[in-house]
Design goal:
Helix content is about 80%, strand content about 0%. By secondary structure, it is mainly α. The chain has one domain. α2 runs antiparallel to α5 and α4 packs parallel to α8.
Length: about 250
């Protein structure tokens, strides 16, 4: 009962943050659940709520076919990368997934906080998109988090706000499907995890509605600073704690 309550609270908070800033549900869920349970189980729990919210995000815009044509090859590369990275997440040694997950969360927080400005030329997009997709896929499979390097990459492409939100919705949707399939084929997606993942839809959607309702009442710049600051601390704590346990076990 306590575990179910904690899972509900995590997805309520993750959904709230997604409602306010338009993203962050799987990132927050993996970060917090990764402290409470094994990362591979946490990844299994976020599949359905992440899929539902991101399909909603992608389908809500008018440019679906244009975005699919433009980033189709990138999405394919993402799936390939996820199938390769999943072996890392499901490894019997549970220290490395926590180290990797914490490191990715900390790096993502730093990138989001300082928001370095760079642009990708359309001339190189056909070359860079598959590489970014493959790298994002490997990290998705290895950590359950699908933001690096896809989110900074999309932000560098000069997309409008609506195009960016819809493109992120597509990327997150494909990442979630690829992650769910990879977990299923690796035998890491149990019936119990499936039921808990279904249950997590309700608090995630409730959190999203609450976040969207409060979006105009919150200073977005200050909220993002607090959010990514906390995410950096969470990721650093997770990585350092797992690394300490790993090296302590070796000695």
């Amino acid at each position: 009962m306590n575990e179910i309550l904690l899972i509900a609270l995590v997805f309520l908070l993750a959904g709230y943050i997604k409602g306010v800033v338009g993203m962050g549900l799987p990132t927050v869920a993996m970060g917090l659940l990764g402290i409470l349970i094994e990362p591979v189980q946490a990844a299994a729990l976020l599949v359905i709520p992440s899929l539902v919210t991101n399909i909603w995000q992608f389908m809500s815009g008018p440019s679906r076919l244009v975005i699919l044509r433009r980033f189709g090859l990138m999405m394919f590369s993402l799936c390939v990368g996820t199938s390769l990275g999943i072996q890392f997440l499901t490894a019997t040694n549970n220290h490395w997934p926590n180290i990797t997950l914490g490191t990715v969360l900390a790096i993502y927080a730093i990138v989001a906080l300082f928001h370095p400005k760079f642009k990708v030329s359309l001339r190189y997009e056909k070359l860079t998109s598959p590489l970014v997709g493959l790298t994002t896929g490997v990290l998705t499979g290895a950590t359950g988090v699908f933001v690096i390097p896809a989110v900074p990459y999309f932000s560098s492409m000069g997309l409008t706000k609506d195009e960016l939100i819809q493109t992120l919705g597509l990327s997150f949707t494909i990442s979630t499907i690829a992650l769910g399939l990879a977990l299923g084929f690796s035998g890491a997606y149990s019936e119990a995890n499936f039921k808990l993942s279904l249950f997590a839809i309700l608090p995630a959607i409730a959190g999203m509605f609450l976040g969207q309702h409060n979006r105009d009442k919150i200073d977005p710049i200050r909220f993002k600073a607090y959010f990514f600051g906390c995410l950096f601390c969470l990721g650093s704590y997770m990585a350092l704690t797992a690394a300490y346990k790993y090296f302590n076990a070796l000695s």
